[in-house]
Amino acid sequence: MTDSPEAIRAEIERTRRELSYDTDALVDKVTPSKIAHRQTDKIKGAFGSVKERIMGSADDAGSSLHDAGSSVKDAGHRVAAKAEGNPLAVGLMAFAAGLLVSSLIPASEKEKDLAEGVKEQAQPLMDEAKNVAQQVGQDLKEPVQDAANAVKDTATDAAQNVRSDAQDAAGTVKDRTQEARDNVSGS
To answer: Which of 94, 92, 100 is nearest to 36 (CA)?
Structure first.
């Protein structure tokens, strides 16, 4: 890299353009309306494929795709052949499409009322689960406290043993040092 101001400015401008492009792409990817549009396109494509297969117009679509290229036509026939041989896959795709469409449609008043009723009926179960969890917490509190105290006592005893051993070792070293000093002085 060069140190000239023009080169540095050009590099900064290039980096800004790249960041701007990346930011625009990211915003486009996470914008809710764009996400909904992409999902809608996917659903339309899935329904179109299923419709063509069910209605028997896959060959008609294949002949119109022939102008666009044989590879697209082959892909369409492969999809149609797979769907033809597997009705479970067609049903699963239709079910998934229905789930997706239903998630995009707002809940009706009846559905909201039913959900509220289920919530009210589940509330006693939720309260019971909460009480059981609190009881388990209370039951475990004492054993945990006892275990913590046992660890604390063991650590205290171990520290006292280490201190005692260290003092004994220091006394031994002191005694041997005195003996060595006396041996050196006496010689």
So the answer is: 100
Give yes or no for a contact between 39 and 104, defined as CB atoms under 8 angstroms apart: yes
DSSP string, 33-49: HHHHHHHHHHHHHHHHH
Whether pTM > 0.85 for this model: the answer is no
Long-range Cβ pairs for the range 20-28 (8 Å, 24+) = none
Give, in order, the Cα–Cα distances in Å from 164 to each of 135, 174, 187. 44, 15, 35
Question: Tens of pLDDT along 98-131?
Answer: 777 777 777 788 878 888 888 888 888 888 888 8
**From residue 53, how far is each of 89, 91, 147 by CA, in Å?**
12, 12, 68
